[in-house]
From TrEMBL:
Its cofactor is pyridoxal 5'-phosphate. Pfam families: PALP. One of its GO terms (molecular function) is threonine deaminase activity. InterPro entries: Ser/Thr_Dehydratase, TrpB-like_PALP, TrpB-like_PALP_sf. Signal peptide: none annotated. GO terms for biological process: isoleucine biosynthetic process; L-serine catabolic process; L-threonine catabolic process. This is Pyridoxal-phosphate dependent enzyme. Keywords: Lyase, Pyridoxal phosphate. Residues 74-367 form the Tryptophan synthase beta chain-like PALP domain.
Amino acid sequence: MEQLECYDCGETYAFGDAARCRCGEPLWFETDTAGFDWPDASGTTGSGVSLGRDTLWRYESVLPAATPTGLAAAAGGTPLFRAPSIEPADGPRIHLKIEGVNPTGSFKDRGTAVGICRVDGPVGTVSHGNMALSVAAHAAAADREAIILVAEDTPDSRLAMIAQHDPHLFRVRGDYGRLYDDTLDGDLGVAFLNSDTPLRVAGQKTVAYEICEAFAPNAPDAIVLPVSSGGQASGVWKALRELNAAGLLSAMPRIYLAQAARCDPIAQAYRRGASRVESIEGEPTAAVSINNADPPSGNRALAAVAATDGGVVSVAEEAMLDETERLAADAGVSVEPSCAVATAAVRELAASGEFGSDDDVAVILTGSGYKYGGAAVDAASVREVDRADVPDAVRDAVP
Ligand SMILES: *Cc1c(COP(=O)(O)O)cnc(C)c1O
Ligand SMILES: [Zn+2]
């Protein structure tokens, strides 16, 4: 797995020789899965090393990295369960993939783990969210220097979360959007594991390997996920292509992507029937982790949708916030609003008849809501009570 290839024009490059294809599109690792089958033993890596529980290293033979240690060995292997309590009437069966149980609370750990096991020396990222936290934590565990470039307006609460892992944390003044390009050329001596780099996409494809293995020998009808840069969507598509080539899918699952309506360049391109995403002027949204007006893998995400006959859904702010509450109150899962767009999209697709009661839909809940302490406490949901009155208050609450 030393070759990178362009999904669009097919051009190949040696790993390390190019950051993007000459045609402008992002690259990913060329992976031959012709002989791949689901590994037999559980709790081991593909090469048979025991990790005690299933992690993404179960698929080591199709990854461009090996021999994980420390925190990197713990990424992936997240729960998937059906959540009837949030299924719409006459709608599909909804299966939730809880990426929030990764070591730093999001699927970003998958890409970071594979990246840090593959490259030597300092690592970095351009992010002020989950990716920054993930890279900082994995660098700490692997005793590497970490360069984290955050936007000037990043709130202190987020900085504090990242800073606890002791990276080199830079608050950048000026055009933050252009930094992604600045860090691509590699002459800073730092391996930047940005949102859609080949190593990150390779790690992040494993979420779809896990979903499909759970359904084997069948396959889910659809996989629904939030999209920002398009990195995770690329990984899911790559996984489906690889598993299909290995003959392990009874049918190709459709890929559906969800965006917040206030910043939805990929959904806009989808509605136009375009194959190219144009950058837009987004508005602020509570979906901070998917607020990307100029997604670097937007075209590839659109191609994933087109190739699998899926779709892209824009979710209104109010529906997204309602869905965040519903997931916590009815399914017991705390997520960021950035994740709730995905189940909100399922609701819309069920209402429009695109999903029916025969469909099995896997939804990737990309990150935990606990670390953002996001949900404001509704005063009416908390009662003050004196100690002596507790028995009465409890009897009152559960008649
Ligand atoms: C990064 C992130 C996304 C978006 O992933 P992309 O690969 O950038 O499309 C979605 N949800 C959460 C919680 C994230 O941290
Ligand atoms: Zn190309």
